[in-house]
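To the structural biology subgroup,

Please find below the input and predicted structure for ImmA/IrrE family metallo-endopeptidase, which we are adding to the shared reference set this quarter. The sequence is reproduced verbatim from the submission form. If anyone notices a discrepancy with their own records, reply to this email rather than editing the shared folder directly, so we keep one authoritative version.
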Amino acid sequence: MINDLLNEAAAAGVEVRTHVFGSSRLKGLYIDNVITLNSKALTSLSETVCILAEELGHHYTGYGNILNLRDIRSRKQEKRARNWGYERLVTLFGFVQAFESGARNRFEIAEFLGVTETYIDESIKHYQEKYGLYTTIENYIIYFEPLRIGKLFES
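Predicted structure (tokenized):
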């Protein structure tokens, strides 16, 4: 997954760098077609993938300086970038594929998709905001709270 995101960034003209930031709270930053990942703060490959997807989301969905998150416009842009990342890494069909592979809980789904459990939880909240309690894809139904995936029977 990391290679897919790195290739996508390169194709979009976005350089990806690593750097040690002074703050471990800031895990990634996107400025002027450059994504900088805080190598000190990122503790796993799956966490790195999640942060890279969000920062790439800033490239596709944002504009201007949004470092002041007290500004509602900045918060909206941050949310758009995160939502882009959720839909890029944790697709509805990804839930189905995880289910079909035998994944039955958040940990197993996160492991199957190569993201963190926290990212799974946040993506579920995003999809619940977007679709409500459940949605269908092909012949599957996905309930978001509690997370359940089932195959629909044809009549």
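Summary notes: The helical segments are 2-11, 45-61, 72-89, 92-100, 106-113, 117-131. The two ends are 38 Å apart (CA to CA).

Regards,
Lab coordination
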